[in-house]
Amino acid sequence: MQNDNGNIIENEEDLDKSEAQNAPVSDLNEEDDPVIEPEVVKVKRNALGQLAKGQVLNPNGRPAGAINMTSKLKNALSIVGEGRHASADLEIVDKVLELAKQGDKAMIQLIWNYVDGKPIQRIDHTSLGEGVQALSDEQMEKLNNTFSKESNETDE
Asked: How many domains does the chain have?
């Protein structure tokens, strides 16, 4: 027996399956493939919109004892593979040092950043290196009044 596409079918049950697979989309009923609606969960929140005590959005959550990717990577790096003399993490350190000795600027920078810590960027946001003076209470009040007037004008 053959189906419409010329494929050999051994029994009628396979023929029915074959025809269903090759049926045009318009021939399919909505009953054949029901849409599953997501469950809407109502949660209690406080006045700030934060979850109330005892409310959980993901009750299943991460299973207890699940290992995150960082831990998996650390474990994999610490394993000494067959035919190796050191673990992968030590081999990476050796490679970084080797590249730095060869003059690789990125590796030199990497070592500096991890050994001494990345230097703090100090940017002078004032003009001509002069320090910033704190505003007096009077100046602050004047600024607040100016901005509140502008705000009221744009609301109208």
From this structure: 1
